[in-house]
Design brief:
This protein has 106 residues and is an alpha+beta fold. It is built from four helices and four strands, in the order H-E-E-E-H-E-H-H. It has a four-stranded mixed sheet with strand order 3-2-1-4.
Amino acid sequence: MAWFRRRKDPGGDRDRDAYRADVEHLEQFAQSRYGVEAYLEPKTAVTETTVVFIAHDGEWTRRRVESAEAAHQLGHRLGIPVYDVGLVGYPNRMREYNARQRRAES
């Protein structure tokens, strides 16, 4: 009976596609800007593991990654440093960029 069939990997393909799209976005961000650094954010009860890429001028983007290991591998492949945000925090240039964006919107 069809009622008792179980999917082997519910949502697995969608998750892989979503991670792939997130990684492609991060790669494009890193390749189109200079001075990019990665800041790893740990998984919480509410969010998955994420990484923030921050360019030299403070422009930033955040995307989820499969794991901390995957973030480190991506950073290594792109030639950018990966920092643990819990240890080093966010750089001031990110806060300054956010402040500039708020002023520009007002």
